[in-house]
Each structure stands twice: as structure tokens, then as C-alpha cells.
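Anyone else keep sequences and C-alpha cells together like this?

Example one:
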Amino acid sequence: MFSRKSLLAVLAVLGPAQAIRYLGRVNPATKELSWSATGVSFTFSGKSATIGIEGLSGANSAELIIDGKSTYIPSVSGTSVTTPKNLTQGKHTVIFRKSSEAQFGSIFIGNITVDGKFGADIPARSRRIEVIGDSITSGYGIGATLPCTNTAALEIISQTYSVRTAEALNADLSIISWSGIGIIRNYASGQVDTSPIMPERYTKYGANDASGSYPFPKSDRPNAVVINLGTNDFGHNNVRPKLTGTEYTAAMVKFVRQVAAGYKNDPTFFLLTSPMMSDGYPAGENVKSTQRAALNEAALQLNGTKAVVVDWPDQGSDLGCDYHPTPNTNGIGAKLLTEAVAKALGW
């Protein structure tokens, strides 16, 4: 027979089944945090909470947010993450969020325990944004300046345009991103890249789940879908043919219709140009103008689907690892996207 003390301890462990909420695209069957910015949130009354880690793969960075105050964890290790020891007795809100992208690794959530009792679940916000992208969206190399080599610790998702836009608009956020990915073809290297392009990878629940596993639940339906793909498609590195604007337009229209058909709630789409592309490189190719014109044409062809083109200026000489956007460049993109979403949706 349980004593009162042991019964309370059991309830404190069982509580998360009802009290926690997953953030972003998380398969509840696996509790795997794979995509960038996926996580868990909960409230409790007490002085201490522990988030159990059932398993880890690869390398992962994360963020622990207690009552709005963030602590960055450059390398997640061990079997749990615990709130700071100086936490005062009282009501607290806890968010644990993966920062690094799926290519580096995954965090598998275990039991969540508290020394007091769980509070009401943090309700989902009425506004929801989904962002689909490549390394720019993943925060690749955002934590350092050129020259540097990207690592999981340098992908600080809170500094990216996606998180900053969602916070500015008080919206829940889901990120589906993969460095090097394209909408037609992936990053050009000396070898043929046979890994999935975004129209296939997008259908996965967790990033490592089977293709076609995502069920598009009503609870995940976004008001706004942001697509930031094209940097890798247009790149050719002289090892493959140049991409035409017509090809890119057709692929974007097809993918937007794929996403819209999955959710069935008529979200507004925001199509971003890439800050990593310019008309000056490669010389004479005018890739930024080509992408901009192609996205405008896609918006015209998407009859009956609301689509807005957001033109993100070239990043210039302000560079993170491997010529990727810095926090400053992401701030510019966030401001432009926030204004566009607010105007289109009346937020």
C-alpha cells in the first residue's frame, strides 16, 4: 500500500501526461525532439522541476526558459535537465526547447517531475506560424562570425528570424528545416545528393520518422506558413546545370499546394527571398532577381491561395559560419516578416 508521501511522488511523475504540452512538430509516440525549436512546456508550484532525458543521439544544444528567463545549453548531456537551485517557492512556467537542427541529433524526453504539484497546461496560442526552410532557418553558424565551422552549439535558434517573428507576434511556432535542402534539389557538391528534398522530408512527423508519417492534426494547423527555400536550388558550383526561374516557380507552386492540401484550413503563405543570394554572385547570373521574379510569378499562379512575397535584402559582408546570416541579418528578416504577417493577417 502506498503511503501518502509516496502516492504524491507517483502523481508528480504521472502529472506530465496531462500537464505538459509539446512545442512544434513532436511525435507523441516517440517523444523525440528532432526538428529545431521543438520542446515541452509546463507549469508547476514548488522550487524544483526535472525534465528526464530518455535518450540522446548525436550532439544537441537546447534552451531552458524559466518564467521567461532563458539559459542556453550548448551541449545537452546526462539523463536530465533540472531547474536552477536558486528557484524560489511559488508558481513557475518552464519551457525546454531544442536549439540545434535534426542533422546533429535528437533528444528523447522522459518523465518530468516536480517537488510540488503541476499546474494547468500552458494553452496553445490562437496564432500559429509554421516555417519551412534550409540552413538559414536552422540558424546554421549564427553563433559565430566568419571564419568558423558550424556545430550544434552554434545553432542558437532563439536568434533566428523565425523565433523572433513568432515572439513579436505572440504566436506558437513550428519549424521544419534541414541544412542544405532544396525544393527541387539539394546543395551542390561534387557528388549527386540523393537525400530527400523538402517536399518529401516535410511529410515526416519527427525528422527521423518515415516519409508520409505526419498526420496534419487540426491542433497543428497554422495561420501563416513561411517558406524560405531556394538558396540550395539555385546553387550549382559548376557541377550541374543552372536552375531557371520557370523551374523554381513550378516547384514552389506545387509545394505550396501540397502543404495547403495537408492542413485544409487555407493558411496564408509567405514566400521569402534568400539573404544569401545576390545579383553579384555568381557574376552575371542575377540569381536574386531571378528568385524574386519567380516567387512573384508563383504568387500569381496560386489562384485561390493567399501568397505574399517577402523580399529579404542581401546580407552583404555581415557573415556567420560558411557565409550564413548573423543575428543582425536575422533581425532584418524578422522585422520584414513580422510586418508582412501582421499586415496580411491583421495581427
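And example two:
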Amino acid sequence: MNTKPKYLLSISLLLLATQFIYSQSKNLPEIKVSKNQHYFVTEDEKPFFWLGDTGWLTFGKLDRAGVDKYFKDRKEKGFNVVQVMVLHNINAVNVYGKAALINEDVSKPFITAGNNFKNPQEYDYWDHVDYTLEVARKNGIYLAMVPVWGTNVSKGNKVSKEQATEYAKFLADRYKNKSNVIWLNGGDTHGNEFMDIWNAIGSTLKTNNPNQLVTFHPFGRTDSSENYHNASWLDFNMFQSGHRRYDQDSVKTNFKEDNYKFALRDFELKPTKPTLDGEPSYEAIPHGLHDTLQPKWTANDVRRYGYWSVFSGAAGYTYGHNAVMQMFRKGDKPAYGNKELWTSALNSPGAKQMVFIKKLMLEFPFLEGIPDETLIANQGSRYDYLAATRGKNYALIYTYNGRKIEVNMGKIEGEKVQVIWYNPRNGQKKKIGIVDNNGTKEFQPLGIKEDGNDWVLILKSGK
């Protein structure tokens, strides 16, 4: 008479084991640093080109239907990373009215029992984060999560080192089995301020979950490498090239719009670590951010930042749009002059064009690529700059404005090279012919010389 309960118990245990194995097998591959330390690969050593989007306010402003729509769209457009704030503010409340913290204390997350995804009114802030992570996973997307946005620390010092450490332990424990989690410590903040807090968060996350990548998202025109390159918890560098024009900078010592300079500098640092532009000028945001009467950055600009940085050694690139980064909805108070709904902005030209840089880089042995300005015989400055990268049998050179490119040949193998023009606006190629791989040769892109008439010159070894 006791066999039936034992039988049912055995079946139940088997089902639980099967569900566990199935859930584990559905995890996304872990992302790690490549063997040469410059790029990212999956756990089976396949190249991983970081193509990110800034969906900063996803957790707070999107309901489940919005989460589903957003990640489905970003998957279709080729994005594989979304950067998001876990806590925008310490009084964070999501779209269902659920507070993230008890008494605005980061060491005390507001957690309720259960996570019934069938009824969003019954689950808490953290359950909604869990739901979002699951939707991202199903769409093959990694979430690069900022634990607490920098202003919560830098303005009023609302987070102590002790609170930050306890909070980081909570995050590390809750998401230890999530292979699609990457951590962005900091959050638009100066790296040389409150370093005890950022080091506490970074080291706690890394010590508890060594297989999850950790970096630091810095203030505009600065780089994580300036303060944390040698930190044991920092796996890769991230710079924020920012939203200002050349003439809007008051600081003479920074790189201004020349985001490729961050990538070139970081590429040479020791110990070697990957780097990327985690926040360039957003599409449809005013030049300089705050004056809404200024011109707005366009798809041309986000392409320029992408190719400039990637051809200069970056392991990927993060795109952003003014409306999407703030998940602007009807009735919201707009920031930075935005008037477009996030659902409409999903289909902005720049968002559609980002996939072409990813496809191009993965067409070649991406992991062997090195930036090489010596390919260029007629280097220019500002918008005339020509970014160049090469591997053993290929070279790629980017012009933002269709200016003539003079190439020092012989930098890749072979007596002959194929010449191809690649259009960053639509991903189309035009074969030019075959030339000798010696001397200096000139190549003239299609169209007239003007900003936004950008082209990639592809040189491939062989006939």
C-alpha cells in the first residue's frame, strides 16, 4: 500500500530533474574573453561580437507585453546585448507599482514569496527583472546590468559601502545561474569618485560569480581603464565617448568626438583587456544633450562611431536612441527633447543599420584583427579620419565622408588582392577588381565627398 506514494514521489523527482536539465540546456552560452584577450568568445570559443542597445529603463517602464515586443525586435535587428539599469533610482518602482527596495535601502530588496508570471500583480520588482531576463534569454540576448546608477552614489551619497556590498551579494546570489548576465558597475559616473563603493560592488560580483563578465560604465568622455584597468574584478574596458560635438567640449585634454582614440589606447594597455564604446552619441538626441534647440545626432553619426571604434580594436559597439533608452511612452515627461514613442523609434534608420557592422566583422577572422593606421597613406583628422583594421588575409578601411583612400599595400598576405566596396547603410557590396599587393594605391568611393557618404574598403588576399 505504500508503493503508490513512492512511485508518485519518484515520478515527481524525475520530472523535477528533467525540468532542471532542460532549463540548464536552454541557457545561453557563457561569454568570456578570447585567448588573445582583445575580444569576446562564447564558451565553445566562437567569436562573439558585442552589438548592444541601450534599453536603460526597461525594468522600470515596460510591462510584460512591452518586454516581449522590445526583445523580439532587437533580436530581429541583430542585437545580442541590451544595457539596462537594475536601479535607476533608490526609490525605483516598476510599471506594476512594485518597489525595488524597502525604505530606499539598497541592502534591503523588497522581495515577496513566489513569482507567478501568469499574474503580474502578484509578483514583485525582482520577479519582473527575472521575467525580463528570461525573455532576453529566449531571444538570444545578454543583459548588461548596472546594479545601481551612479547618481545614487555621487549625488547625496545615498549608498554606503556596507549597503553596496550587501546589495551586490544579493544580486550575485539571485543571478548566479544566469548565463546571460553581464555586469556594468558604476553608471555614467566619474571613476575616480567613491572608488571604495565601486570596488566593493565589482569585487563582490566577481568573487561570487567569476564566470559573469564585469566592467565599469563611466562618465562621458572617460574610460574605465583610467581608474580600474588593473582592478581584479574588471574583465573588459568600457568608454563613453559621449554626446557632444568637437566645439562643445570645454576640456582640452580629452578625445572629443574621436572615439577611436579610446579604442587605440586601450588596445595597447597591459594587462590586455577587451574594450568598447558603451555610450556614443545617441540617434535623435541633441548635440550636447541639454539644449533641445541644437541639431540632433543621426544614423550617420552612430555608424561613424561604430566603425571608427571597431576598426580601432574594440570588441563590439553599443548603439542608442533617445526615445528607446528612456522607453518614452504617452504621458511621460520627456528628457533631452524627445517626442517620439519608443515603439516607433525601434525602427529608426540607425537601429536597422547596426547589424551590418556585426555581419561584416564576423565575415572575417574577427579574433585575429588588429588596428593598423599604417595602412593609410593619406590620413586625415576629425571627419576625414580613416579607421583601419587587418588580419592575415584581409584589411578593412572606413571613410565617413567618401574621401579618397590611399593605401600602403603589402600589409596582408598575397601577391594580389581583391578590392570590394561595402555600404554601411545597407550592407551591399560592389566588387571593383583585383590589384597588385604592393606600393601605394588610391581608391575612390562612390558618390561625392560629404558627411554620411560612408564606405568600407575591403581588401582580401588572393584572386
